Amino acid sequence: MIHLTRLSYLFWIVLLWLVSHVSLAQSPCVEVEGVASIDKGDVPYARQMAIRDALAQAALTSNVRVNAQSETQNFALTRQTAQFAAQQRVTSMKVLSEVQESGTIRVTVSACLTEEAKVCPNYIARYVPKVAIASVAVQDEYSVKDILDVSSGYQGELFNRLWSSGQRNVEVLHTASDLYAGRPIVPNLSSTMLQTASDRTLAQYLVLTVIRSADWEVEQSEIAGEVRKLLRFDKEPSQRTVSVDWFIIDLIQERMQVQGKAFKKVSDVDVRVGRDKPFASRQFFVTPTGKLFDYVLSEQVASIQEGLACSPIAATIAEVDKDKVVVPISIDSGVSQGDVLAVYSRTSRPYRIGAIELGTDLEPSAFIRVQKVLPRFIVGQFEGKKGLVQAGDIVKSW
After folding, report:
1. What's the confidence (pLDDT) of residue 111?
2. Rounded distance, CA 372 to CA 384, Å?
3. DSSP result, 279-328
4. In angstroms, rounded to a whole number, what is the distance separating the alpha carbons of residues 310 and 305?
5. Which of 208, 201, 308 is nearest to 249 (CA)?
């Protein structure tokens, strides 16, 4: 009996040791220090900037990817550069201490890290940006004449698959024909159209889909075709190719974020569907043509997930009332009471070379701490402010 008790005791000791070491290996924590200058006596703003500095350093504490370049002339080294990129990200953090001295603030942060196959450049990426799915455009209507409800069916199925894959912050946008233009059909990226879509959905990203073609045809030799034409005998179509393009539009920045394409062909089968098998129905997806669309939809969902995997949430400020800010970020984004978000000014002047815009060197103009999370918006309070903050400025998670 005593022998068994000792064995059990040893078993639990070994088990606890393994669990603790595995958890540490999976989520190591480090202590780092961040520093920021106190500008115009604004300590809360400087504190948040120091925390950001600490988190950036935490992500570079180990497993760093280095891209080095060097140039030589006459066998002599003339220039050498190196770029460092984090291979891990911060999952949680805690401020341990802070000290103010000589116009600066120093914070010590305990940050827990995780290593992943693909790491996002932003350090805490647990929020889910809102995605709107526009009505689907069909470029060649004749090629889908044998399929019922192609446009609405495709849009609904894309919504269902994104929802099932974990993208719960998603909405369907109906009657969005104005978001397409031209022949061949392309996205209409005019500011007016995109602003309308943003106002209607409060989404950060918009998915536009164009079914280019779903051509079906008879696979036959030239001689066989002439014989059948002479005898007025039509053969059932035996091959089909489905081609679909999609575009992910950043509604905040009003620019293309991702562009994707998928196509697939099937032959030597009866590819005609029939109007009794509506798109996205179980009867539709068991047909050869349904399997083509199933493949294309899977490719599109994977493309959307990959394209938005590292995107921080962003939204424009709806209202500023003294020290309070209202931002249209929904509860489905994962934002919680007490979270701190950064504010960026819309009025920052971009750098240009001639007519080419190079971008903007952005630094947060303020930070807000979330006080209320409601179904369609959050209310935050300023926690450090540098300059003017007004409606239309951008709130981001980093």
Report:
1. 82
2. 18
3. TTSHHHHTSHHHHHHHHHHHHHHHHHHHHHTTPPPEEE--EEETTEEEE-
4. 9
5. 208
Region of 334 (left: φ > 0; alpha: ψ -120 to 50; beta: rest) is left
Fold for domain 131-308? Rossmann fold (3.40.50)
Whether 359 and 384 have beta carbons less than 8 Å apart is answered as no
Q: Where in the chain is the domain with CATH 2.40.10.410?
A: 314-396
Name the segment(s) of the chain with CATH classification 3.30.1660: 23-115
Question: Could you tell me which CATH class the domain 314-396 is placed in?
Answer: mainly beta
Which CA distances in Å does 117 have to 87, 137, 198, 385? 8, 35, 33, 37
The 10s digit of each residue's pLDDT in 334-349 is 999 999 999 998 776 5
Tokens (6 digits) for 312 = 């921080």
CB-based contact 240:215 (threshold 8 Å): yes
Q: Which of 61-70, 90-99, 270-279 has the highest mean pLDDT?
A: 270-279
CATH code for residues 23-115: 3.30.1660
pTM of the full predicted structure?
A: 0.77
Asked if the model's pLDDT at residue 87 lies above 70, the reply is no
Amino acid letter for position 125: A
d(CA 269, CA 218): 10
Residue ranges matching CATH 3.40.50.10610 in the chain: 131-308
- 273: which residues sit within 8 A by CB, 6+ positions away? 146, 147, 284, 287, 289, 290
Cα–Cα distance, 327 to 317 (Å, whole number): 5
Distance (Å, whole) CA 16 – CA 167: 36
